[in-house]
Amino acid sequence: MTAPSEAAVRTVDLKKTFPASGPRPAVPAVQGIDLDVPRGEFFGLLGPNGAGKSTTIGMLTTLVVPTGGTARVSGLDVVKDAVEIKRRIGVVSQNNTLDSDLTVAENLEFRGRYFGLGARDARKRAAELLDLFGLTETRGGNPFQISGGQAKRVMICRALMHGPEVLFLDEPTAGLDPQTRTNLWDVLRGLQAAGQTILLTTHYMEEAEALCDRVSVVDHGRILASGTVDELKSTTGADTVITVAYDAAAPEEIKALGDRDGISKVEINDGQVRVFASEPDGLLGELVTIGSRAGVGVTDATQLRPSLETVFLTLTGRDYRE
Ligand SMILES: Nc1ncnc2c1ncn2[C@@H]1O[C@H](COP(=O)(O)OP(=O)(O)OP(=O)(O)O)[C@@H](O)[C@H]1O
Question: Can you give the residue ranges of the ABC transporter domain (predicted)?
């Protein structure tokens, strides 16, 4: 077993560059990532599509071979000890990878047998997990004829059959409707409360906010910031961010707002203005008024209160959803 002091996941300068192929240049998908996830933690890798999250989880789960740095899971090296790591982890991928030739329960039992459980124990464990996850009714069904939310829960059950030390979930709620998503959140919270270490990737900020003890924000293969959601908000994204799009170049007068108390930064990009403010009251109206005095109209306006979204904006200068 793992020594109690051993981190569940630890990476140092972890890198993956996919080689060039034909006309396609090499892709530096992960460019030096440091992670330190203690046991029992619910940890999130948050970033937009293409940020390198799946590649990182691929390396941690031994499916993708790193091209630089090191990664240890349960104290074992992902390259040298890949076989042993597979026994210690559970992995839930983005797509439905259940076996359509087997029933729901058989999918679980088969996995249990693969990991060395006897037939009776595998059946018992599968039945217990299906019960715990509210899936008993689906047990004899085809895993492709149940709902997306149910299939995801079955995949989590399958990943838990051998009692993994770390559970990896790649975008567990992508494509699920909001109700199903929050149901799955409850399931995951329950697992953590029972002591399960969980590492998930997500591009949903609200998911990271709802579930994770700590988060690393990733973009272009690098970590931009790590901490609890509250820490991230108070250190990097503490301001409300007001974005206004004018129908012509932004009025000159706006630059002067940057000198005012309660405004930490003003960014002007042609007709788009972004104001980072600790005292945002009345500011949006003022931006509209300044525009109309200068004869320019406002075509779009948003006001974001401090959130992971403003953290991302502050760190990258880009809108998370751009
Ligand atoms: N096998 C591969 N060969 C070449 N490039 C790849 C491969 N897998 C991923 N990439 C590229 O690596 C980059 C990071 O992809 P990755 O899938 O890790 O991002 P992500 O954050 O998980 O996003 P998504 O949620 O869309 O999967 C992207 O530019 C992607 O196109």
Answer: 9-245
Measured between alpha carbons, how far is 95 from 38 in angstroms, rounded to an integer?
Answer: 27
* pLDDT tens track for 99-142: 999 999 999 999 999 999 999 999 999 999 999 899 999 999 99
C-alpha 122 – ligand 1 centre gap (Å): 35
- Tell me the β-bridge partners of 159: none
Give the right CATH number for 239-305 from 3.40.50.300, 3.30.200.20, 3.30.70.100, 3.10.28.10.
3.30.70.100
Q: Which fold has domain 9-234?
A: Rossmann fold (3.40.50)
Counting from 1 in the atom list of ligand 1, the atom nearest the Cα of 54 is 22
List, by residue range, all CATH 3.40.50.300 domains of the chain.
9-234
Q: Atom 11 of ligand 1 has which residue's CA nearest to it?
A: 29
51 lines ligand 1 (CB under 6 A): yes
CB 211 within 8 Å of CB 21:
no
Q: ipTM score here?
A: 0.95
Tens of pLDDT, residue by residue over 159-201, are 999 999 999 999 999 888 888 899 899 999 999 999 999 999 9
Residue nearest ligand 1's atom 17 by CA: 54
Indicate the angle between helix axes 148-160 and 178-193, nearest 10 degrees.
20
Least confident segment among 5-14, 64-73, 98-107, 300-309? 300-309
Count of CB atoms within 10 A of residue 254's CB?
A: 19
